[in-house]
Design a protein that fits this description.
The complex is a heterodimer of chains A (about 400) and B (about 210).
Chain A lengths: L1 H5 L4 H33 L9 E6 L16 H9 L3 E6 L1 E2 L3 E8 L2 E7 L2 E2 L20 E7 H15 L6 H6 L1 E8 L2 E13 L9 H11 L9 E6 L6 H9 L1 E4 L2 H43 L1 H9 L4 H41 L9 H25 L2
Parallel strand pairs in A: 7-9
Antiparallel strand pairs in A: 1-10, 1-11, 2-10, 3-6, 4-5, 4-8, 8-9
Helix pairs in contact in A: 2-8, 2-10, 2-11, 8-9, 8-11, 10-11
Chain B lengths: L2 E9 L15 E5 L3 E5 L6 H8 L6 E7 L2 E2 L5 H10 L1 E4 L11 H12 L4 H10 L15 H13 L5 E5 L7 H18 L2 E6 L10 E4 L1
Classes of the chains: A alpha+beta (about 400), B alpha/beta (about 210).
Chain lengths: ~400, ~210
Amino acid sequence: MYKLLRQNISKAQLLGFAFANLIGLTVVLLALQIFFDINPFFTQKDAVFKRDFFVITKQINALDMFKNGSAGFSENEIDELKNARFVKAVGEFTASQFEVYGQVNASNTTFSTDLFFESVPDNFIDVQSGKWHFSPDKNFVPIILPKTYLNLYNFGFAKSRSMPKISQSVAGLASLDLVMIGNGKRQIFTGKIVGFSNRINTILAPQDFILWANRQFAPSKKNEPARLILEINNIADSSIATFFSERGYEVEGENAAVGKMSFFLKLIIGIALAIGFFICLLSFVILMLSIFLLLQKNRQKLQNLRLIGYSKNAIANFYILLASGINLVVYLLSLTLALLIRPLYCSAILEVFSDFSPASILPTCAIGFGVFLLISMLNILIIRRKID
Amino acid sequence: MNVIKLQKILPEIFAESPLQSGVWQKKLEFEKGKFYLIEAASGKGKSSLFSFLYGYRNDFLGETVFDNQNINSFSAKDWNEIRRKNISLLFQDLRLFPELTALENIELKNRLTNYKTRAEILQMIEYLQVADKTNEKCEKLSWGQQQRVAIVRALCQPFDFLLLDEPVSHIDDLMAVLAADLIKKEAKNQGAAVIVSSIGKNLPLNYEKKLDL
């Protein structure tokens, strides 16, 4: 019987289908595999983008420049953030409300500069130091500076002036006097740099110190925090960016870029997937049309087969086998193709990120198999319907 | 299956102008083991009758009953079974597959029923003197040769009723005798009924009943 039914098969049409479906499915599988491979960069901790913290401020616009008030976050706004789906924890920046001068005594000259401090709860700080605590009776304040300050000095200033570079440990040796004035009081502390933070872009002092000093030197002033530090569940969550922009919050640093990058990554992969599926869909239509045409051409034959006693299923099975067979070959080929292309982009990623470890190919295989099953099922359904 | 009962059946196309007939609108029974001849001029509905009995058309009035079952109640699956085990039909237009050889055409049926051995098939082909065409594609065969191939195919299954729609229209008298022999032998073997239609040239059998359509 198969010899009979084989007769009118248009090889060109089926080849066309197979080719189109091959391209479509390869695009789909490749896009999925790229997504699986790259996604850990955006979601896993301790991966390339390991910080899952955001520091947010309110946007300052032209009008605010003339207002003396704070551009701080109200309690309601902080509560809203605490309850947001993507936020794990919220820390407030507490700013010093009094005057601070830093003084360095070198030989007989005294250099002095205006300073300010901010603090955040300790668990948001990325620097581990045994000296990071404050007690009022010791007159000592540990300080954490942004890493960028050190870099700015080492790679900008020191280089151009032929001055020695300073390492983190050397910087920790230097001390400076901190003069605090306010509320009719004046007190001198010794300040020491205990570390450099990658995460927080301010001059940090321990929270205990700021709270204590604000009470001492500026008891009357109250202030809403101007900056918040958020610990985020998944910084690749693209809804974060929308959430912030709707409320006019600005995000400091590159974490915002990670969100955007992941958004664009998802967008591009989404487009690739859509195109791939669209090609698959078109090729599916080609296959169906080709089989319809075949059934039409073979109408008389099929009827005669039915009349000499062949069952509908026996006849349909030939076409089902044909369609499923082609689908299976296409699936295997496209999987092979995708896996052949994969090392190309993997090596490109490896050049940039040496700790890149490709994801498993199993999910992609499974999804590809799912697509194969789905298409074949549809084929079977339509063929059974078409043969009577 | 032992008996086919026609209960006043009439093709729908004749419903407007009912005609005098020995079959249409009559109560009739075809019994297993007997030979029947239905004679008629063309256009009287011979092939229609066979298509009703073979279940691929049902545009008729009245009832057709196999044993005690109305054939309108049969499903496609039931008909598959009937066409493999109970009724064999030699189509007037033969319905051979032109792109297959004579033998392939016969085997296509026999593979379904596993009723005859290859040797038996070749023997029948030889008996009807088309052995030299065994491996020839059917499209290259004359109508008479094709008729003989179709007769062999029709015999490659168990049946209670063998329907032959103008089986010898293109076969000479000598060959008709051979075909009749072969058919008679197989029918006797199976204890089956044979219903033959004809527009003049008859398959030479001892008919128990002759009907005018």
